[in-house]
Fold this protein.
Amino acid sequence: MSALPAFAPPEVLAFNAEIEALTRDAPPPWKVGAAEARRMREEGLTILGPRRVSERASDRTIDGPGGTIRLRVIPPRRSARGILLHIHGGGWVWGGPHHHDPMLESLADSTGLWVVSTSYRFAPEDPYPAAPDDCETAALWLHGNGVSELGHELVAIGGESAGAHLAAVTCLRLRDRRGLAPFRAALLTYGCYDLRCTPSVRAFGDRPLILNTSSVRWFVEQFTGNRNLDDPDVSPIQADLEGLPPALFTVGSLDPMLDDSTFMAARWRAAGNHADLDIWPGAIHAFDLFDNDHARAARSRMHAFINSTLGAS
């Protein structure tokens, strides 16, 4: 684990109180419904606010197992050296590759990587295995076409929340199903790796801090339906993790996903892989998506990890 502040700074606690006050009376996701929540996210009516669009970003489509997959492509301003596949979060239910343009621009510029963020089919309309199938397809397309289409190889993967889960599953699928290991670095940010629910999920309660016990259970139910939660393709913490890339696990100490990251980082390391674990004091779920010092520091740490792991460009 990296050396981080031992205690939550006052501004982090103040931010948490603001988030809690703003969301205390908001209806839970199962009352809003997936379709309405998606509309609100697109219209900038959620706690994350209006989305900001990159002038550099472009969209392209590829064929997927269930239809078209959209890839959001952001080039770096500096000399490029590879491609990072990004998988967005949203509980496997909502979100989009166009929702994180400023964050992905910064990642591209700091690391010299083309950042390609993929779409995937959503639950509950298209439950497991639709999302993992689409992410696997995007990774395979970039592995096979990155040089011809973007001039560079696929070298890294990353995602947050459900996207981190899908990133871990994608690494495992490429290894087990395709005999491929293209990734030399992974950014796995407050992911859900054990869908049976870890102690920190079960104990969190219903405090309205972006994510809580009830909402995690609802998201998992939408995604998995009646699937076996012990299946490593569903709960990647159950998998043989040998031969996976160096990874940075990032999570806040006030996130229901705390145990998922700490347990997965331990298993990742025990399997013989490099794993760094950053636990940010007082940070809540999705903390890095906001514009404050704690979030900027976490994002800078992710960029530094990529640069250190891939070497100087």
Q: What stands out?
A: Residues 87 and 159 are 5 Å apart (CA to CA).
